[in-house]
Structures are given as C-alpha cells and as structure tokens.
Amino acid sequence: MVHNRTALSVNLNKVALVRNTRHLGIPSVVRAAELCLRAGAAGITVHPRPDERHIRAHDVHELAAALKAWPGREYNIEGNPFHNLMDFVRAVRPHQATFVPDAEGQFTSDHGWRFPGDAERLRPLIAECHALGVRVSLFMDAEADQMAAARAVGADRVELYTEPYAAAFGTPAQDEQLHRFARAARAALDAGLAVNAGHDLNRDNLTPFLRQVPGVSEVSIGHALIADALELGYGATVQAYNRCIDGAFGA
Ligand SMILES: CC(=O)[C@@H](O)[C@H](O)COP(=O)(O)O
Ligand SMILES: NCC(=O)COP(=O)(O)O
Fold first, then answer.
1. Residue ranges of domains in the chain, CATH in brackets
2. pLDDT tens by residue, 10-65
3. Using CA atoms, how far apart are residues 197 and 207, in angstroms rounded to an integer?
4. What pLDDT score was predicted for residue 131?
5. What percent of the chain has pLDDT over 70?
6. Which ligand 2 atom is nearest residue 199's CA?
7. Counting atoms of ligand 1 from 1, which one is nearest the CA of 14?
8. Distance (Å, whole) CA 13 – CA 78
9. Closest CA to 169 of 205, 144, 130
10. Which of 3, 97, 161, 182 lies 20 to 30 Å (CA to CA) from residue 208?
11. Cβ-Cβ contacts under 8 Å for 101 (sequence gap 6 or more)
12. Which residues are near ligand 2 (CB < 6 Å)?
C-alpha cells in the first residue's frame, strides 16, 4: 500500500512556557506558529493543560484565528476530554482533537487509553466531536491488540505514544521497539484507523521510525524541535546583537 508523506505538526507548548516567565508577550506563540507554517509545517499542535503552565486559553483562541489564514494547514488540540479539552473543542472546532488520559498537573504525557476500561466514557465524547466536525485521535500505547477497540469506540486515528521508542533509540532495544510500533501501526491500519505518532521524536530518531513504521499520517513534535530551533538560531542571533552593539560604536 502506498501512503502519503507524513505531515509534521509543530507543538508550541514550549514557546508558551518561555513566554510565561515574563509579562512581555515574547516569544509570541502566534508568531511562532506563523513562522513554522511559512517554513512548511503541515499544522500546529497545542496541549493546553489545566494548570496553564504553558499554553493558555487565550493562545488556543488566538491560534485558531491565525490558522484561518492558512487553508489546508491543520490545528490539533491535545488534552484530557474529562478535564478542559472539550471546552476548547466546542469553542474553536479544531481539525483534530487528540484525547490524552493525563492527570491534572501531570509532568508530561506518559501513557495511553486502555480498553475495554475507557470505552464507554469515551464513546459519547468522540460522537460529540464528530457532530462538531472534529476528527478524533486517541493517544495510545503501541499495543497492537488495543487498536480494534480504539476503532470500535469511534476514533478516527490513534496517536502512538513514542517515548518508549525514543528511550530505546541507540540501544540494543531499538529494533524490538521499532517492531512493536510497526505491529501496532499495522493493527491500527487494518482496523480502519489512521496513525499519528508523537512524544520525544527528534532529528535522530524520526527517520528510522518512519522508515519502519508503516502509514504514519502525522507526527507532532514539540520539545526537541523547539530546542533545535534555539540551537540552530543562536549563531545568527548573537551576530544580530553584535551588530546592535557595533551600531553604538560606529562600526
Ligand atoms: C501527548 C503528548 O505526548 C504531548 O503533547 C506531550 O504531552 C507534550 O506535553 P508537554 O509539553 O506538557 O510535556
Ligand atoms: N503529541 C506529541 C506532541 O505534540 C509533542 O511531544 P514532544 O515532542 O513535545 O515530546
């Protein structure tokens, strides 16, 4: 089967995290989104946690407005639908809602939904998203035997939680993890789901993952991408500041 090229959705949580340490509005989350989209990102992802440690409610709304100027690019909002996610979904109707079973105040996402346990409470919320015209992706551990159940509750996609692969990358366990993710992706595709992936993907581990794991429609990447953006930008930025200093000395 031939699949389309994987879409890159840039997660801007960490831009907001830096912004929140001052009251100056910089770095601007909307401006970051526009720069990412201009550079070729297929979409923008945010995970507005209830404690607003990074993305805040106003960011979700401002990004929704900004994305309107980018037809064909996608807005993906992640979160727990039993906490604050559904309020955002109802208000801005993103292209995709990614349901993540995080506790309030959780350090970062570290597991997916479990079936059959989560099935009945998820079903009506997935149906509500569909009624709003919003695609639903369920954040899932890479367990092949869970995929049919994710489809059965109405999900359109699963997002495979890639941290175990990222942690194994470069160790003897890497191949085993790749096989595990490939099995889970195949099971999801066979069940009629599209496959997303994310968490701790980076410039080293991404290409081997996409070569081995079939049919990945979208990767959402934040932490490593924002860290890379800082490092790749240091040289030009220091030069720009030195030019400001030179300006004071007539250079
Ligand atoms: C669902 C997922 O894997 C990411 O959204 C991750 O939860 C990022 O959240 P933080 O940026 O708060 O770690
Ligand atoms: N869904 C995963 C995501 O949006 C970004 O995760 P990370 O790259 O910040 O680990």
1. 7-246 (3.20.20.70)
2. 999 999 999 999 999 999 999 999 999 999 999 999 999 999 999 999 999 999 99
3. 13
4. 98
5. 99
6. 10
7. 11
8. 11
9. 205
10. 97
11. 80, 111, 112, 113, 118, 139
12. 11, 45, 78, 159, 198-201, 220-224
71: burial class by Cβ within 10 Å (0-12, 13-18, 19+)?
exposed
Q: Do 213 and 185 contact (CB within 8 A), yes or no?
A: yes
Measured in Å, residue 97 CA sits from the centre of ligand 1 at 14
Q: What residues form DSSP beta bridges with 44? A: 10, 75
Rounded to the nearest 10°, the torsion over CA 84, 107, 160, 69 is 50
CB neighbourhood size of 144 (10 A): 17
98 with 140: CB under 8 angstroms? Answer: no
pLDDT digits 0-9 by tens, 52-98: 999 999 999 999 999 999 999 999 999 999 999 999 999 999 999 99
Checking DSSP bridges between strand 96-99 and strand 135-140, what pairing results, if any?
parallel
Residue 245 CA to ligand 2 centre (angstroms)? 38
Q: Is the dihedral of CA 117, 122, 124, 130 positive or negative?
A: negative
DSSP alpha helices (H): ranges in 10-159? 13-19, 29-38, 57-67, 85-92, 119-131, 147-152
Confidence tier at 212 by pLDDT (50, 70, 90): very high
DSSP state at residue 145:
G
pLDDT category, 4, cuts 50, 70, 90?
Answer: confident
Mean model confidence pLDDT for the chain: 97
222 lines ligand 1 (CB under 6 A): yes
pTM of the model: 0.97
